[in-house]
Records
---
Amino acid sequence: MHRLYQEMLHLTPEQIERVYKSAHHIREWYDQHPEIETWEDYIRYMGKSDEGQEA
């Protein structure tokens, strides 16, 4: 945590807000999809959800 804090000291308030929003979005998505544990799971999941969107 200390390393993260040290790295964030160099960011502007706007950059910190973008990091926060991104992390918050990822956390919410992960909480809604606990079955996704690996990158491969994510790719499979996204492939399935894309199939329904093709025209």
---
Amino acid sequence: MLEEERADSHSWLMGLYVYKAIECLAPIFNPFSKSKPDDYISEPLMATASRTQEENDARAEELQHERMASWLMMHGPSED
């Protein structure tokens, strides 16, 4: 019984990783989208589950700043 639960959990987690990978690549599947693919997750999903809420919030804020900086680099002021 325990071995079946472990196998089910492993299969579910693998499915989640595949889902995340496809989600990151989704913008390139739309021919009218001008956005680039997102970066794949940088750490194992189970690592985020063991963090405290404050750590998760700090990490989310850090990622948001990185995305904003990246967007500004791509869409910064145009030189006319």
